[in-house]
Design brief:
CATH class: Mainly Alpha
Distance between the termini: 33 Å
Strand content: under 5%
Number of domains: 1
Helix content: over 70%
Number of helices: 9
Number of strands: 0
Radius of gyration: 19 Å
Shape: globular
Oligomer: single chain
């Protein structure tokens, strides 16, 4: 799991470096944006707006809170039940800080299909969605799923939902491809780190107190 966190953070750093020198993934941003703008339809734009709304921070905050309460009522440890919510909050904070640090301009407003604020890099929607959906799918895999096939289904669904949210921002032409990829990487890293740390904290054996003797 530590390798996954490191790999995703490495992707984020590499894209950030590309942003500074204009090479790598950044060099494909304009072409990808033009492709999405040229091929989008009214139906796709409407679908993208819906997905972006559902995948926005406020909507995910409500879902994470209700989902955490549901898991807790199923006798999942409160700390682990709140893992998706914590991942979402940390992702929102990380994305906001990064936006202020990089201050990247968004695509031209003439191609925007929705209203946006703040800077472009990284995509807040992609970061939040990746953090929440992956943390949620990992948490469900650890606490609810019993079969490996079900666990794989949960994780696959989480990754797919995060991908849809990121792509919706490209359809709406409010982000560059590199913004979305960096957001996915940052969100994934946060999700895995939060779930692993909380799982370890909840399940690790407790050390005997000074008045207790270790069992032989």
């Amino acid at each position: 799991m530590a390798t996954l966190v490191a790999a995703n953070l490495a992707v984020f750093v590499l894209v950030a470096e590309d942003l500074l020198d204009g090479g790598g993934l950044i060099s494909h941003d304009e072409a990808v944006l033009a492709w999405f703008v040229d091929h989008r339809t009214d139906l796709l734009v409407s679908a993208a707006r819906f997905i972006s709304t559902v995948g926005g921070f406020v909507s995910l905050l409500v879902i994470a809170s209700l989902g955490g309460l549901w898991l807790w009522r199923r006798r999942v440890h409160l700390g682990l039940a709140m893992a998706p919510l914590l991942a979402l909050l940390l992702a929102g904070l990380a994305a906001t800080v990064a936006k202020h640090l990089f201050g990247r301009d968004r695509p031209p407003t003439t191609v925007h299909a929705t209203t946006v604020t703040l800077a472009a890099f990284p995509s807040g929607h992609a970061t939040d969605a990746a953090a929440f959906f992956l943390a949620g799918s990992l948490t469900l895999s650890l606490t609810v799923a019993r079969r490996r096939s079900t666990q794989a289904l949960f994780i696959g669904a989480g990754l797919l939902l995060a991908a849809l949210v990121g792509v919706s921002r490209l359809v709406l032409a409010v982000h560059w491809l590199s913004d979305v990829v960096a957001g996915w990487a940052l969100g994934n890293a946060i999700a895995v780190a939060v779930v692993v740390v909380l799982w370890y904290a909840v399940t690790r054996p407790k050390s005997p107190t000074p008045t207790e003797e270790p069992r032989k």
